[in-house]
Write a structure and sequence with these properties.
182 residues; alpha/beta; Rossmann fold; 5 helices; seven-stranded mixed sheet
C-alpha cells in the first residue's frame, strides 16, 4: 500500500470520527457540540467576573475547556460542567484528567434542564436561541438573587440585558457575550 493510500484512509477515519462526534451530540441534545476557540477564554473570564466564593455552572460544557479554564483562574471557586452527549463528555473527562483533576471542578453527565441550579452564582452557556428561552424560566425559578448568566452569541429575548460585550477576537463561533443578572 502506498503512503498516499494510507494518508487517504487516515483522513477518511478522522472525518468519520468528527461526523460521529457531531451527530451523537446533535441526536442526544438537539444542540451540536461546537467548541469555542481558546483565544476567547480571557473575554469569557472577564465577563463572568467571578470571586473566590463563586459557584459556576457551565450548561453544556462540551470538552470542558471553559469550565476548566475558569477553575484554573479561580482556584477557590467551585466549577461544575454539565454535559449530556457522550462524545463531548468523554473529551471533558479526558481534559479534566489532563489538567490534574482540579479539586474545584466536577464534570457531570446530566441534562441541563434537570440540573439543580440553586447554588449557582454564575452560569455560562453557549447553546441555541430556543434553549435560552426555556432556560430563562428555569433561571427565574432556581437561581439565587444576583446570579450572573453569561450567554455566548444568543440572547435571552425576554430578559433585561445587563451588558453586551463583543469578543476582542470575534469569529463565526463567538461574536458577543450577553450578560444578565437574575
Ligand atoms: C455549542 S456546544 C458548547 C460547548 C462549550 N460550552 C464551549 O463553549 O466550548 C453546546 C454543548 O451543549 C451540550 N448540550 C446541549 N443541550 C444539552 C442538554 N439538554 N443537556 C446537557 N448538555 C447539553 C451539547 O452536547 C454541546 O456539547
Amino acid at each position: 500500500m502506498t503512503l498516499l493510500a494510507i494518508l487517504y484512509i487516515c483522513g477518511l477515519c478522522i472525518l468519520l470520527i468528527i461526523l460521529v462526534l457531531y451527530l451523537s451530540s446533535l441526536t442526544l441534545t438537539n444542540v451540536p457540540f461546537l467548541s469555542l476557540s481558546r483565544v476567547k477564554l480571557p473575554d469569557i473570564l472577564a465577563a463572568l467576573d467571578m470571586h473566590p466564593e463563586s459557584v459556576l455552572y457551565e450548561l453544556g460544557c462540551g470538552d470542558g475547556r471553559v469550565v476548566l479554564a475558569t477553575a484554573k483562574a479561580h482556584t477557590a471557586a467551585k466549577c461544575v460542567g454539565i454535559e449530556y452527549a457522550l462524545a463531548p463528555l468523554l473529551l471533558a473527562r479526558i481534559n479534566y484528567f489532563r489538567a490534574g483533576k482540579p479539586h474545584n471542578v466536577s464534570i457531570r453527565r446530566q441534562n441541563i434542564f434537570s440540573t439543580d441550579l440553586t447554588e449557582a452564582t454564575h452560569v455560562f452557556c453557549f447553546l441555541y436561541p430556543h434553549v435560552m428561552v426555556k432556560l430563562h424560566k428555569k433561571f427565574q425559578r432556581e437561581l439565587p438573587a444576583g446570579a450572573i448568566v453569561v450567554s455566548c452569541d444568543f440572547e435571552i429575548p425576554t430578559m433585561l440585558l445587563k451588558q453586551k460585550i463583543p469578543f476582542s477576537k470575534p469569529s463565526s463561533l463567538g461574536r458577543t457575550l450577553y450578560v444578565y443578572e437574575y
